[in-house]
């Protein structure tokens, strides 16, 4: 009996250390995307609201925004791009206006929307002018509303 007890105990200890070693090897592993549904987009999230009225009140001073209802919450977005640099540029633009935002990633499969955002991204990547940034943000949001939300 003692002889088996020691064997089982040693096996458990070795198994524990091997499992610990293997799991720590993959601690920062994010995975491999095998497939995705569409192109990756960066949306600037302004906030999450529990009612449409609360969201509309928060966006009263904004020139343009789109929203998405998820369950009982409303999410307000104030910018859309496919380029991470442009997303950071948009975020910096809003920060300069004391508007805090965060970047969220989504996948959308729509060729005409993808082409429209690509065109806007090409303009935005080469500009730091606030007027241009504002216009690109508005056009991107309008294209999202026109093509994705309204299905045109």
Which key features would you list for this structure?
four-stranded antiparallel β-sheet, alpha+beta, 5 helices, 152 residues, Alpha-Beta Plaits, elongated
Give a verbal description of the structure.
This protein is of the alpha+beta class and about 150 residues long. The protein has a single domain, classed as Alpha-Beta Plaits, CATH 3.30.70.1070. It has 5 helices and 4 strands, in the order H-E-H-E-E-H-E-H-H. The chain has a 4-stranded antiparallel sheet with strand order 2-3-1-4. Helix 4 (about 110-125) runs antiparallel to helix 5. The chain is elongated. The model has no long low-confidence stretch (mean pLDDT about 85).
Outline of the structure:
With 152 residues, the chain is of the alpha+beta class. It has five helices and four strands.
CATH architecture: 2-Layer Sandwich
Number of helices: 5
Strand percentage lies at 15-25%
Tell me the count of domains. Answer: 1
- First-residue to last-residue Cα separation: 77 Å
What percentage of residues falls in helices of 4 or more residues?
Answer: 40-55%
Structural class: alpha+beta
Low-confidence stretches: none
Main beta-sheet annotation: 4 strands, antiparallel
């Amino acid at each position: 009996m003692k002889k088996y007890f020691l064997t089982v105990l040693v096996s458990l200890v070795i198994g524990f250390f091997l499992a610990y070693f293997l799991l720590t090897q993959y601690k920062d592993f994010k995975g491999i995307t095998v497939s995705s549904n569409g192109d990756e987009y960066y949306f600037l999230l302004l906030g999450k609201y529990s009612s449409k009225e609360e969201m509309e009140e928060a966006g009263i001073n904004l020139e343009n925004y789109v929203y998405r209802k998820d369950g009982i919450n409303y999410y307000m977005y104030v910018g859309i791009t496919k380029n991470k640099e442009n997303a950071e540029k948009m975020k910096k633009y809003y920060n300069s206006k004391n508007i805090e935002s965060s970047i969220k990633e989504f996948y959308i499969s729509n060729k005409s929307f993808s082409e429209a955002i690509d065109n806007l991204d090409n303009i935005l990547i080469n500009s730091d002018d606030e007027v241009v940034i504002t216009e690109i943000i508005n056009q991107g949001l309008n294209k999202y509303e026109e093509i994705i939300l309204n299905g045109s």
